[in-house]
Every structure is written in structure tokens, then in C-alpha cells.
């Protein structure tokens, strides 16, 4: 019966037939919108590493667990739940095209998933520790980067740096399937010293980790550096997590509680030990961490010069004497635990995190900061849940902090029709609620001082067309940075995508966001709060000439209006060419980009590919012409008739330059000189031994 059904699917034109493996499809729109909201990105490339590894070692869908599927970050919980139920009822999959029969799985989702999964009839076995240590893949990465900026502001800043302008990162990683991973990362930022001065041991930042899975009752074991992801991020979420974007269904936080950490970011991780135990439907996680934080310390003369923390520094830069003075000056002891009961359709869990700082935190004098964490001890507790009923999935988290201030997030994912999906999120986070290392689905960068409701709809009316729409209405009950009164706002996005064939993809997008900000040039006294509206329209085209060459172009405009005054405008245009010959050792890409805006307020963002595991999303403003060239060459070529070699070497080179098209005198008069005459280079070598 099942065989005849699968044969029927295969004969329907092979809709999701396997294709040439593409580059890692990080959601560029999500990253661009994240950079715009937070004016910067964290150095977390763990998902990119995971997907690149799975291209070479695909996940077997016939043995994949719920955690394996969640860690892909490509599926919603409703899709995962439906897949597991389908597999339990009908047995192992016989062909990849059978995925089309899983409820809530559309062709677009399957195509994104195909490069990282496989279908196998082999029985799962438990590998012994010796096999894990002998038969894994070893990777050594060395990256050298340098930025040359001839603007006067940049030259003045670099004069005070103690080290060279070269940035260096090295990373060694050993990985056996998804069962064992260990490695070390060393990172030196531009301007930091290297094997001299205050950094006689070489790199400014070192990271070590050992991570094992499926050791009997031990589902996960983390030693060294790791991240913790609990619930919906109200009390703890240290991995990358996106917020609002054109992927209107990507609203839920999902993943295993413990994850290995081997990125170059110097703040958002724990250092110690963590373990997850599994027995039947019960899962228990516990972790402990002792590490140093970078902070601004202030002496209180009224309390016998007692030092307290005025702020925690998250940048990781130690280039000047002032930055070195703030380096690793406070110890943070973190402990936590999570208990989860789960079956194929639902789960409930309780979570707790506690912190002890060697010096007390003390809020600033600003009125908006009066509810910030105060003291040496802090704690957060939460309850989270999820339930799947037919084609509907509900989930949420309710949290309190040490002072019993409350926060909550509740969400719904529903497949209303094979062509229509719905997402809803309600959040209510009190102005007094505070947490560390958290990241929830909110308008604010941190889950604090916010009430809001988000609704998104994804419609696929006919083959090749897709309409994504969302609207978010939010309010901030208390004051914020640069907002001197309780305020609110709204945001909506409409994106229409057309994919007539596998060679062409076009989308056009309109987005509006209205929020309140302090008036820029107020009268004497308190700055009044005025509405600021940002309108954005983008059209993007990708055209694949053949299996070797792909062209991409984008046109984008922005209008920013403050208090109904004359709007500031911005314009961006770029065109890309990507050349990747089949069975050839090289890959080449280039971009020519022009930007012109009235000021920094009307800046624009565009994702830029550089070397593997690395990207850039700089703010682009004023008048800039920017070109980017990337070259990747695999020294150990492999043809279709040759077996894979034991050792391979990937050489990557990236160069990007921003040029001000007018005279140097005109450029010097501009305010945003960071964008001018900037030259970025990256050189990277990756050695892989299988």
C-alpha cells in the first residue's frame, strides 16, 4: 500500500527532486532586519557551521529525533510534530518525495531541507566512544582580516589602539556525526595586542569546548564553553534567534537546552559544565558556570570607596588602556536547571537560573533605568509549554524574576489550509521584569517593558506565488533610552514572491514601522516625544543563467519622517554575480553597490557574503559606492570519478571597498565618515581531515 503511494508521488514530476547543493541558505532577510533593529550582529556562526557540516553528512530522517529536527532551525514545531506522527503511523520513509504527504509541509520547506537530509534504511546503532574519537572530521580554520579606513575620525580612534589593525581568528574542531564535538577558538580583534604587552599568551580571547550526545541516559554533556536555551527566551537564550521578518512563521524559539559554543563572540555563553538526562518522557538539565565579565566599575565615595557595576560590556574589545581596565574584572557564577515532560504532541517544563556577581550591580541615575537589576544576586524562574492538536500548535512561557515581576509570551501556529498558514504571538512583559542572557520574540532587543500582539499570514495561492504578511502592535509602559515617556507603535510588512521556475526568483516587499522618539532639537526643558515613521520598499531578483552562473539584483528605497516633517530618503542598488562551475575547485562572486541617503537616519542594510562562516551587514548611508569580490579555491580538487581525499584545503579571499564618489574635501565635511574610503580584506584557510 505504502509502496504504491510513494511510486505515485515520484511520478508526479519529481517536484522536490534532489538538486545541486547550494551555498548555506542563511535567511538574509532575517539577518538584515536583525541588524537594523539592533544596529549590529553578534558573532555567532554556530548554525552556519552546523548546516555546512550537514551538507557533507546529511541527517537521516528515518532516525532523526525531535531535537535533531529542532536543531536544524528550518522547520516549525507544527511541521516537526506532523512529521514524527507520520513516521510513527506509516513507518520509515521510502523516498524523499514522500515528504510532500506530511501535513503542513510545503514544497518550499522541502527544497530548503533537502541539502541537509537523507533517507536510509540502515538501522541506528549506538557508536562506542572509541569510534567517536577515531572516525570524526577535523577542521582547522585560520582567518586574517584588516580594515583600512582613511577617514579622519577613524584615524584618530586607531591612534589610541595598543595593537595592530589586523584581526586574527583560529579555530580547531573535531566532530563525529552529531554525537561528539570538541574544539578550541582563539580570537584577536583589530587593535588588540598579540603575543606582547598585555597579551603575552597570544589571543585576547580563548574558548574551549567538549560536547557529547546520546551516552545512554545522558542525552547531552557539555564541558567548557556552551550555551543554554530555555523556553521562549524570557529567562535564558544564548544562541542566535530571529525576530520579525518576511519568514512570518519563524516566531518560535526551539532547540535543545544545551548547545556547544565555538564562536568568536566574547559575551553570550557559559563556561563550566552542563548535562541533560533523559528517561522515557522525562528530561532533566542542570548546568553550572564560572566566568569573568567585562564591566564598568565605579567607586562610591560615600560607602568607603565600595566598587559597584554601572554596566556590563558585551563588545569584547580590549584595544585601549581604558578597555583593558574593564577586562575580566567581575566574576559571574551561574547555576540553573530545567525539568521537561514531553510526548509526541505536547510538553510542559519548569526552568530556573540564578546568578551571583562578585560585585553588585547598581542602576544608573536615568529615570528609564530605575528598574534595572540591583545587587549581587539575581534569579529567574519560568514555566513553558506546547501542545499540538491536528494542524494547530500552541506554546508559551510565563516567567518571574527575583522580585516576582512577571513576563509572559504565548503563541499559535496553525495550518488553516494546505495553502494558508497563520502565526500569532502575544507578549506582556512588565517594565520591572529583568533578566540576563535572554532573547525573546519582542520589539525591544531585550525582553523588558513591552506589551504587544503579532499576527502573520503566509499564503500560497497557486504554484510559484507566495504572499507573506504580518502586523505587530506594541506598547512600552515605561520610559526607554531616548524616549522620555511611555510610548507605543506598530509595524507591518507585505511581501509577494514569484518563483516561475527553479532559475528565477523575484520578490517585492513593503514595510512600515512607526515608533516614538525624543525630539532632536527640542525647546529648553524635557524633550517631547514625537512619532518617527520609516517606510521601506524593496524589489529583489535572482536569475540563474545556468548551473554555473547566477545573477542577483536589488533596488531599495526608504523614507523616514519625524513628527510629520519633510521626510529623509535613502536609495540602494546592487547587482551580484555568482559563478560556481560544477566539479571545479573554485567559486567566485562579486558585487557592485551604490547607496545615497540624506543622513544616517535613512541608512540601509544589505547582507554581504565574505569568507565561509563569515558575513557583514554594515549600515550604509550618505553617498557610497561599494564593491565586493570573493574568491574560494579548493586546493585539493575532487571530480565525480574520484573518491574524497582525506585532507582538503579551502582557500578564501574577500575584499570590500567603500568609495566616496566626490572630493575628499566634501567627504571630510560629512558627518558619517565611517562609510568613506574604507577597505576591508579577509583571508581564510580551512584544512579538513576526514
From TrEMBL:
Query: What InterPro entries does its record include?
Result: RuvA_2-like (IPR010994)
Name this protein carries in UniProt:
Helix-hairpin-helix domain-containing protein
- Give the species this sequence originates from: Niastella soli
